[in-house]
């Protein structure tokens, strides 16, 4: 018999208590895995289309082979897993703030992403993505990357932690762009529709800025919902 609800793990963090739970959802007749920060829902295994598209759309704009990629935010692992579908990816550095989240993957608690942490191309690093992005050392001792894929905050204007807001300014993005190779790609997931103000800020720093709404079926509303994926290229 399937349990209706089970908390698989939790841990305190400077941003609040982060937890992973599994529940049986009668609406979809399936087990659903969810991550919460205090009482705020961060992600669900029921809605992963746009998280995967973050990797697909971002890497589609990168030319060349033997790609070195950063993923900001591990979460349930769908963005990282989708990046590994690209055979050109040789090194995937996943920067995750919470040790608990890394532990969930190292223990393979999430059926859809079993084996992610053990993939020889993957390195899971417990660090503050935003602090690393604006530092001179960057994500890996000053090394430049072909793509940086970010999925942490709800959106550029709805951040999980107030210090993150500075990253979404022209100065913050410019500091992060220094860790991209020439013509490297920055891509970011957002829960909200495209924001004109953030588009304007992106265009101050990057070229070829695009925002694509990614639509998916929503069994709760019995309609369609959307997220947004922004992509931009370092000149």
Descriptive key words:
235 residues, alpha/beta, Rossmann fold, seven-stranded mixed beta sheet, four-stranded antiparallel beta sheet, 6 helices, 21% helix, globular
Task: Describe the structure in your own words.
With 235 residues, the protein is of the alpha/beta class. The protein has a single domain (47-233), classed as Vaccinia Virus protein VP39 (Rossmann fold), CATH 3.40.50. 21% of the residues lie in helices and 39% in strands. The chain has helices at 49-60, 78-84, 99-106, 129-133, 170-177, 196-205, and strands at residues 5-13, 16-25, 30-37, 40-44, 67-72, 89-96, 122-126, 145-150, 180-190, 207-218, 223-233. The strands form two sheets. A seven-stranded mixed β-sheet has the order 7-6-5-8-9-11-10. Strands 1-2-3-4 form a four-stranded antiparallel β-sheet, covered by helices on one side. A hairpin with a 4-residue loop joins strand 10 (207-218) and strand 11. Helix 1 runs parallel beside helix 2 (78-84) and helix 5 (170-177) crosses helix 6 (196-205). It starts with a strand and ends with a strand. The mean pLDDT is 94.
Write the layout of secondary structure elements.
Blueprint: E1 5-13, E2 16-25, E3 30-37, E4 40-44, H1 49-60, E5 67-72, H2 78-84, E6 89-96, H3 99-106, E7 122-126, H4 129-133, E8 145-150, H5 170-177, E9 180-190, H6 196-205, E10 207-218, E11 223-233
Parallel strand pairs: 5-6, 5-8, 6-7, 8-9
Antiparallel strand pairs: 1-2, 2-3, 3-4, 9-11, 10-11
Mean of all residue-level pLDDT scores: 94
At the fourth level of CATH, the homologous superfamily is Vaccinia Virus protein VP39
- Per the CATH scheme, the topology name is Rossmann fold
Q: How would you write the strand order of the largest sheet?
A: 7-6-5-8-9-11-10
Shape: globular
- Portion of residues within helices: 10-25%
Question: Based on DSSP secondary structure assignment, what is the total number of beta strands?
Answer: 11
């Amino acid at each position: 018999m399937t349990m209706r609800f089970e908390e698989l793990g939790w841990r305190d963090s400077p941003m609040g208590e982060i937890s992973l739970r599994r529940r049986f959802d009668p609406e979809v007749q399936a087990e659903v895995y969810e991550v919460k920060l205090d009482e705020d829902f961060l992600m669900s295994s029921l809605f992963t289309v746009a998280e995967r598209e973050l990797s697909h759309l971002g890497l589609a704009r990168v030319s060349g082979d033997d790609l070195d990629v950063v993923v900001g935010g591990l979460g349930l692992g769908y963005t990282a897993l989708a990046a590994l579908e690209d055979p050109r990816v040789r090194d995937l550095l996943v920067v995750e703030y919470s040790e608990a989240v890394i532990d969930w993957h190292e223990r393979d608690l999430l059926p859809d992403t079993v084996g992610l942490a053990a993939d020889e191309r993957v390195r899971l690093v417990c660090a503050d993505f935003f602090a690393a992005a604006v530092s001179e050392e960057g994500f890996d001792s000053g090394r430049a990357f072909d793509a940086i894929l970010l999925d942490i905050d709800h959106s550029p204007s709805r951040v999980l932690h107030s210090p993150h807001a500075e990253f979404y300014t022209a100065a913050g993005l410019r500091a992060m762009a220094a860790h991209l190779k020439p013509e490297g790609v920055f891509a970011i997931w957002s829960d909200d529709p495209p924001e004109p103000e953030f588009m304007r800020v992106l265009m101050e720093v990057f070229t070829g800025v695009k925002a694509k709404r990614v639509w998916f079926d929503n069994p709760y509303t019995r309609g369609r919902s959307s997220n947004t994926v922004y992509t931009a290229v370092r000149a």
